[in-house]
Amino acid sequence: MGAPGEAGRSGGASRPAADRDPGLQPERTRLAWRRTVLSAAVAAVLAGRQVLRGGAPGPVEAVLMVLVALLWWAFAVVAHRRMRALTAGRPDALSPRPALLVAGCTVGLAVCGAALLAPGR
After folding, report:
1. Which end of the chain lies in a sparser environment, N or C, as judged by fewer CB atoms within 10 Å?
2. pTM for the model
């Protein structure tokens, strides 16, 4: 019988976790973060364009547009940190604080976008 951890090499169940080759998974995750940030940026710019198309925005629309920009910036900062961690090696799971920030930014962007594009505006 072989030493512990040799099961994967001798046709056993699987290779041990320490011997794991992450392959392209970190690269796919980095690309997914980039696509998400880009999608949020495009949606924010298009919402702002739609608001500005009707003339000068009112005070509510201006505040909402600034809020959209701040929420997008916070989302982009968290995404950039996560992409940098993925580049550095095998990062830990996303901790609750950044995960909550990303979820809050996503919900905030959706609410602000819906308010900006509401039919009565």
Report:
1. N
2. 0.70
Asked if 48 and 65 touch (Cβ cutoff 8 Å), the reply is: yes
Tell me how far apart the 2 most distant CA atoms of the chain are, in Å.
78
83 is written with which tokens?
């992409």
Residue, of 117 and 75, whose pLDDT is higher: 75
Using CB atoms within 10 A of its CB, is residue 114 exposed (0-12), middle (13-18) or buried (19+)? exposed
| Residue 33 Cα distances to 44, 91, 108, 116, 118, angstroms | 17, 14, 18, 25, 28
Nearest to 43 by CA among 116, 99, 98: 116
Instruction: Reply yes or no on whether the pLDDT at 81 is more than 60.
Output: yes
CA–CA separation, 22 and 15 (whole Å): 12
Instruction: Judge contact between 16 and 5, C-beta under 8 A.
Output: yes
